[in-house]
User: What shape does this take?
Amino acid sequence: MKCSKRCGRLPTTASSRILVHCHAGVSRSTAFAYGLIAHQLGAGREDEAFRALLMITRKPWPNRRIIEILDASLGREGRLLAPLDAMRARHPRRIDAWHRFNERRGLISIYTR
Assistant: This one.
């Protein structure tokens, strides 16, 4: 089942709230939050959705693979990736800072980049 069919049942009123959570609150949760915002705003408003994400979280680094999947599922033809890639180009060292922060917290991944 495509994400757009499952996501179609999401609350749509301004007073609705959805909690999106992951351990560090940087990558997976921000990716899904961005996808939910983009879905709610509709196609063609991906830049606006990304700006909205930046207003509700500090220093996000949405998981690019999750955004790729959401982009394909929602039929956005790369438009969800464009603002994310632009942010990553502007802040190329931000992910390294998050890795250092997690190492200090004892959250060391077994996976390498």
